[in-house]
Write a structure and sequence with these properties.
CATH class of the largest domain: Alpha Beta
Helix content: 25-40%
Number of domains: 2
Radius of gyration: 22 Å
CATH topology of the largest domain: Nucleotidyltransferase, domain 5
Strand order of the largest sheet: 5-4-3-2-1-6-8-7
Structural class: alpha/beta
Order of helices and strands: EEEEEHEEHHEHHHEEEHHHHHEHHHEEH
Bound molecules: adenosine-5'-diphosphate
Distance between the termini: 11 Å
Largest sheet: 8 strands, mixed
Strand content: 15-25%
CATH superfamily of the largest domain: ATPase, nucleotide binding domain
Shape: globular
Number of helices: 15
């Protein structure tokens, strides 16, 4: 069975074709600059352990044209991996916001499309793009069932005390203002992979998952289920991110508007695009900040990294208390979590009182494998688990269509 996984943005489509017989990735790519004068498709196929890349530059007026080109590349005799698009057995869509309607993945029908539309006010940038992706893929792969896998679904097991904000009741009842959380597919994937790695049943597994990439969030996992997460109604809440502030005094927007006369669009732009590591250092890529810290001992970079790690430590403490049971593991994942021994060290170095302790000889080496980096004395394992959201979407797609 082959599953095409699609992640549609407002001007882009990311895709992967996964052969579920051995869960291998056979093709992947990115369509970008849809709607601009010149678009671009980067297409890769993976054959006999080799990666071959094809780049096409052409005008891509809309998503339909973009996905038509993807279908043509996948079936191209020279650069493709299948003979006919009918070999795509199912399409799995990354859907960002499922609100309270979806606590699991679903086969897409008109009711599901309507429900995703109903959630547009909660994710005005993402859900409209997801709907376009679904409509276009349904036309092009009309023989294949389509499945929606929601970023919010895994966190629907949070108890009310964790997901409610202390705001007037009617904001929740009438407008859906509550914590939803995101990156759910990743938190689910890494927690299941970690439980398997440690030989524990997922129902008995307690962990704190730390997904730190450009966007960043943590989750408290008790008995294999998400009981709290750091992103909220939107992805702005929680950890310090590449360009997002994360937690702050909620009166700051009011301060900015009343004293600095900023408009609410300017405030929104600043908190989402100009804050976080970029706001503190001028750079959002952690590799640049780590370079400045290591090579130049730059005090701004040092402070930014310490702030970044401190926020994660605070959440570890909070989530340990939220789980209130023996913890099996803390799990680092995503771009920073998988690749930055500096951040892992900064986060863990003062947590030995909790039984969290790293072995630097295991933390420092680079690897793409799941691994235990804790010292033999540690009571709680510290793991690095490479995330694979596309594979999780493909697995759920397969499960939903049975
Ligand atoms: P996204 O949230 O966009 O999916 P990723 O999970 O791919 O992002 O993470 C991107 C981030 O990972 C970037 O900020 C990048 O700097 C960081 N990153 C990647 N490699 C390293 C590395 N070797 N050391 C530190 N940070 C890294």
């Amino acid at each position: 069975m082959k599953v095409l996984v699609i992640n549609t943005g407002s001007s882009s489509i990311k895709y992967q074709l996964i052969d579920m017989s051995n869960e291998s990735n056979i093709a992947a790519g990115l369509v970008e600059k849809i709607g601009e004068a010149q678009g671009r498709i980067k297409h890769k196929r993976f054959i006999n352990g080799q990666e071959e890349e094809t780049v096409k530059v052409l005008p891509i007026e809309n998503h339909q044209v973009g996905l038509d080109n993807v279908a043509a590349l996948l079936t191209d005799p020279k650069v493709g991996v299948i003979k006919d698009k009918k070999e795509v057995d199912a399409v799995g869509h990354r859907a960002v916001h499922g609100g309270e309607k979806f606590n699991h993945s679903v086969k897409i029908d008109n009711n599901v499309i309507q429900a995703i539309k109903d959630c547009v006010p909660l994710a005005p940038l993402h859900n409209p793009a997801n709907i376009v992706g679904i409509e276009v893929a349904t036309k092009i792969f009309d023989h294949a069932p389509q499945v929606a896998v929601f970023d919010t679904a895994f966190h629907q097991t949070m108890p009310e005390e964790a997901y409610r904000y202390a705001l007037p009741e009617k904001l929740y009842k009438e407008n859906g203002v509550r914590r939803y959380g995101f990156h759910g597919t990743s938190h689910l994937y890494v927690s299941h992979a970690a439980a398997k790695f440690l030989g524990k049943k997922i129902e008995d597994f307690n962990a704190i998952t730390i997904h730190i990439g450009n966007g960043a969030s943590m989750a408290a996992i008790k008995h294999g289920k998400s009981i709290d997460t750091s992103m909220g109604l939107t992805p702005l809440e929680g950890l310090i991110m590449g360009t997002r502030s994360g937690d702050m005094d909620p009166a700051i927007p009011y301060f900015l508007q009343s004293n600095l006369k900023m408009t609410f669009e300017e405030v929104n732009q600043m908190l989402n695009k100009e804050s976080g590591m970029k706001g503190i250092t001028g750079k959002n890529d952690l590799r640049d900040i780590e370079d400045a810290y290591e090579k130049e001992h730059c005090p701004i970079a040092t402070r930014a990294l310490e702030m970044y790690a401190y926020r994660i430590r605070k959440y570890i403490g909070a989530y340990y208390a939220a789980i209130a049971a023996p913890l099996d593991a803390i799990i680092f994942t995503a771009g920073v979590g998988e690749n930055s021994p500096i951040i892992r060290n900064m986060v863990c170095k003062e947590l030995s009182c909790f039984g969290i302790e790293l072995d630097e000889s295991k933390n420092a080496p680079r690897s793409k494998e799941i691994r235990d980096i804790s010292s033999p004395n540690a009571k709680i394992k510290t793991l690095v688990v490479p995330t694979n959201e596309e594979l999780e979407i493909a697995r759920q797609t397969k499960e939903v269509i049975g």
